[in-house]
Design goal:
Blueprint (H helix, E strand, L loop, with lengths): L2 H11 L3 E7 L5 H14 L3 E5 L2 H8 L6 E5 L2 H9 L4 E4 L3 H4 L7 H14 L4 E5 L6 H14 L3 E4 L4 H7 L7 H22 L4 E3 L7 H7 L4 E4 L1 H4 L4 H21 L17 H7 L2
Helix pairs in contact: 2-12, 4-6, 6-7, 7-9, 9-10
């Protein structure tokens, strides 16, 4: 891989990566431009958009910020890579869950194999669906690692689903943040402990849960909901800067602040690890 990918993968190892997500269903170029400019101003690492060649072509003329494109169509990802997208992602499945469309482990693996076959010289990220149980997530992650996928992304339940489940409960801001991100943080913790490729935490991450993501083993975070409904570029960029500040502050204090629990310390005797080995 070229110098860009070497630097990018090194940034992941330093656990300082923040990507800004516009979403698979955001095809309005004005909205995508707002998100792009806020990411530039706040100095995020890269932006994640729908795998649309027109959007990629437009953004490549507007910014030097690395572009990631997301889709479940390997051909769309390939076409966008030709247009200049630096990172390809099989993921951001949120828009499909409303129609009760879930991808199985087999589906994800098949998409990853086809995408890697079409594009061999760029970073590929794969989102691990929250609909899979932890065992299925770990087995899939292990297979993707062997396939040569460069990094993974976790996700959680959509907020609308959570509100329906717990609509009668009231939370303070910290409890609300933890509730929204609990599933993606749990997946991050297990996957980052059991695979040797970087893990990005995404889905309802904000300035509170961003630090928890890093403590759970994430090498970076994806931000969408925290900024998407902001009305101005200024409001969006301030929100991103707040999250970046927390992550950079933790990086400086990392020699003093460490997670108290690590699967790696006992994973040889851990039942999940043994199950994966026997898969």
């Amino acid at each position: 891989m070229n110098l860009f990918y070497s630097k990018f993968l090194n940034s992941l190892k330093l656990k300082k990566v923040v990507k800004i997500i516009s979403g698979l269903n955001t095809l309005n170029i004005r909205k995508v431009y707002q998100i792009l400019k806020s990411a530039e101003i706040a100095k995020a690492n890269y932006i994640d958009t729908a795998a649309n060649t027109k959007i990629v072509a437009t953004l490549k003329n507007l910014t030097n910020l690395p572009l990631c494109v997301s889709s479940i169509d390997p051909l769309e990802l390939y076409n966008c890579s030709i247009m200049g997208a630096e990172i390809l992602e099989i993921g951001n499945f949120d828009i499909f869950y409303k129609s009760r469309f879930n991808l199985s482990s087999f589906d994800i693996l098949k998409l990853a194999i086809e995408t890697r076959r079409l594009v061999q010289n760029k970073c590929i990220c794969v989102t691990i669906p929250h609909a899979l149980n932890f065992y299925q997530q770990i087995v899939l992650a292990k297979k993707l690692e062997k396939l040569g996928i460069n990094f993974l992304q976790t996700e959680g339940l959509s907020y609308s689903h959570q509100k329906n489940l717990l609509k009668n409960y009231r939370y303070d801001i910290i409890s609300e943040s933890v509730r929204k991100s609990a599933l993606t943080l749990s997946s991050t913790y297990f996957l980052s402990s059991l695979v040797n490729i970087p893990v990005i935490t995404s889905s309802k991450i904000n300035y509170i849960s961003s630090l928890t993501s890093i403590l759970c083993g994430a090498c970076g975070i994806g931000i969408k909901s925290a900024i998407y409904d902001k009305k101005t570029i200024y409001e969006m960029s301030c929100c991103i800067e707040e999250i970046l500040y927390i992550i950079k502050l933790y990086a400086k204090m990392s020699c003093f602040v460490k997670p108290t629990l690590s699967i790696k310390n006992y994973k040889k005797n851990h039942s999940i690890q043994n199950m994966v080995k026997n898969e």
